[in-house]
Write a structure and sequence with these properties.
- By secondary structure, the protein is of the alpha+beta class.
- Helix content is 34%, strand content 33%.
- A hairpin with a 3-residue loop joins strand 3 and strand 4.
Length: 120
């Protein structure tokens, strides 16, 4: 899926808004059933030792756990970087930590690959 800068900005706003509303249903609608999600928080929250989730139902459990732990979660979008079929969202995350997530989108515009990175 080729992304325009405008489409990437719109996608980023939708993603940030869903997270800031703590709306797990809206969040999950953004992700493909064919998902590969890499994050050090998968290990930190005790989901698995590999730091990767490849099943959408496991991803929903992970996000649900994160929302229950970080009850004051609020993301502040700083930058959206646009690729051919991917975006990088650079944002202020929990505890004012900076985060960057590289997201590949499938042909239907759903997130199929995420590599999440955090400062500190």
């Amino acid at each position: 899926m080729h992304l325009t800068e405008q489409a990437a900005q719109s996608f980023a706003t939708q993603w940030i808004d869903a997270w800031n509303r703590h709306d797990l249903t809206a969040i999950m609608k953004l992700y493909s059933s064919d998902i590969r999600f890499y994050s050090p928080y998968i290990i930190k929250l005790g989901m698995n030792d590999e730091g990767v989730i490849t099943q959408k139902d496991e991803l929903e459990k992970y996000f649900g756990k994160a929302l229950s732990i970080y009850t004051d979660l609020h993301f502040e979008l700083r930058e959206v970087l646009t690729g051919a079929d991917s975006v990088i969202l650079y944002y202020k995350s929990v505890s004012n930590r900076m985060a960057a997530e590289m997201m590949e989108l499938d042909e239907s515009g759903k997130i199929s690959l995420v590599k999440a990175h955090y400062h500190g």
